[in-house]
Amino acid sequence: MKIGIMGGTFDPIHNGHLMLGEYAYREYDLDKVWFMPNGNPPHKQNTGQRTDAKDRAEMVRLAIDGTDAFCLEKYELNRTDISYSYQTMEYFKERYPEDHFYFIIGADSLFSLEKWVHPERIFRTCTLLAAYRDEMNSRDIMETKIAELNHKYHSDIRLLITPLLHVSSHELRSRIQEGQSISAYVPESVERYIIDHRLYLSNC
Fold first, then answer.
1. What does the pLDDT look like over 94-115, one tens digit per residue?
2. Within 10 Å of residue 158's Cβ, how many Cβ atoms?
3. How far apart are CA 200 and CA 204, in angstroms?
4. Cα separation of 109 and 112, whole Å?
């Protein structure tokens, strides 16, 4: 199978995440897209802004409910130590040797990949799909960077073109704290869960 992996804190998951997964699924003819909440990411230590892992996983489950191609993957969520992408991808590659993985990243991550822990080990395990967003970098700059990395690491990085959707989890947390509606940015079931559990009312 061809499996896409969408990693992130999903704090909360929003329509931009879902759109990115949908476009990857369609453009690269994937069989499944795994939404993988990160339980203990190395780049977001001690921020005081993450909700409980159980809440984030449940919001992902609600958001993807009814979409057969989307799955909730709890591997990193269940880990107690820091999760590094290369370790996760090596685990999946070893466990599912017959499958091909497509690791989906944002434009900003493309330009910081070489600062990740052992990026060369990530490249050995999967195809990377870098989402093109015009407000971040021009397409020419992204394609140049992709060509540079592919040449340097013998990797398989490809461009994933998606529509613009101006939404971020940080902005949504701020809107909630200010008492503003987020109904235009998240599935109704996710909004209801946030309201019922009084999430993001402080420390946003």
1. 999 999 999 999 988 999 999 9
2. 14
3. 6
4. 5
CA distances from 59 to 48, 54, 67, 128 (A): 19, 9, 14, 25
Three state DSSP letters for 77-134: CCCCCCCCHHHHHHHHHHHCCCCEEEEEECHHHHCCHHHCCCHHHHHCCEEEEEEECC
Please count the other Cβ atoms lying within 10 Å of the Cβ belonging to residue 60.
27
DSSP annotation of 147 reads: H
The DSSP line for 22-52 is HHHHHHTT-SEEEEEE-SS-TTSTT-S----
In this prediction, residue 42 carries a pLDDT of 65
Find where tokens 């970098």 sit. Answer: 137
Cβ atoms of 149 and 116 closer than 8 Å: no
For β-strands 157-161 and 2-8, DSSP reports them as: unpaired
